[in-house]
Amino acid sequence: MSSDNYSNQTMQNLGYILKRAQQSLRTRVDTQLRAMEITLPQYVVLSSVAMSPGISNADLAKAAFVTPQTMQGILSTLEKRNLLARSQDPEHGRRLMTQLTGDGQVAVKAAEIEITKIEGIMVSSISAHDLEQTTQTLLKCIENLAIEK
Prior knowledge:
Layout: H1 8-35, H2 40-51, H3 57-64, H4 68-80, E1 84-89, E2 92-100, H5 102-122, H6 128-145
Antiparallel strand pairs: 1-2
């Protein structure tokens, strides 16, 4: 279906509704993570390192939607809190390898449980079919907006 079939108002409302949904989710997640003394960007880092030990700082910054400079601060804070450890990459002189510590593994698992609960609340009144359809539609929206097009 082409965009000509949608009114301009509908498309403007969709963007606004997406932002409201994102903001509502972010507010709930931030509140829960704050109780755990973790920020959302810190959680994204911990989760990304859990999935890809040794992930680069640049890739972590992209995953957390922050600048590389901001990522340095996040990594430093997490390292000081003993949630992750960084060590020299033996194959690439200047590159630091990032790994979760035991405390970091506990923190990321606890945060994942809480975020999963919040996401469950978010979709609790949506059928499995509608959720799958919505997910596919949103993925198409992302694809349509990709810079590479």
